[in-house]
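Review form for a predicted model. The reviewer records the input and the model, then writes brief findings.
Reviewer: anonymous (R2)
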Amino acid sequence: MKKNYFLLLLLIPSCFLAQVGINTNTPQQGLHVAGSASTVKIDGLSYPANTNNLGPGSVSRVFVNANGDLILGTAQNNIAILFDSENYLNDPKDPSINQITQHGYGDGFDFAGIPRDIPNSTFTLTQPAIIEINYSVSFMIEKNGSNRVNDGYARAVQTLLYFRSGNYAGPIVTTDLEGNLIGGSFLIDSGTSTIGGGLGISGQYYTNKDSNKGEYEDFHITGTDYVKLPAGTYCPMFSAQLAVSAAVGTGSQKMYLGTGSDEVQIIAHYYH
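Model under review:
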């Protein structure tokens, strides 16, 4: 009788604790794998047993479903191309839409360009993500309305991409998911004194000294950048500048953004 009571007392603590420890006698959770180099291997999540495993050379994310089961997400749970537009900006020259006037250094960027296909110019995030932006934007430069630039001065041409919320006319997105200024304290439009929001700032120099020859159109600038954004609908837009060290006496130099084929690509890297 004493022996039976003793066995019963030994079993009672294990019923109440209901914890399993591996490499430890004092588990802190239902399952506790101790050790600084410890790992857990689940054959059902391995490659090629699980079709959602990305295979050798890649790392697959593990998710928890509503039932508490550990599962591998699909490729769409990890990364997705949300937006890929060819010839994104409207092509015709329009002083009120895509014209940038030459200025001296330090005067800043100006908004330029409008989407060619406005109804299809947005993408939507259903959850927070790290957004990768890739763009190739076209431009042309002319003097006094239709002539080639011919003074031989080196001009800095710079572009950046920014987002508007909702659609192309919505509020400018100047902060990221954590509330930090996107691109830092950088002026992305001198006309409105908008600070923050600039992504993928890139540029090149242009110069020409031949009035009859010399290229003046179908140039491209490319840019790439990353930003963490919350769920929402966004529209990619552009800002640019045309700068020369001495603007006096060089004529009315204009740059038009988006006059050729442009591409904008938005990729979401999910981490939740």
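Findings: The longest strand covers residues 129-143.
Further findings: Residues 139 and 257 are 4 Å apart (CA to CA).
Recommendation: see findings above.
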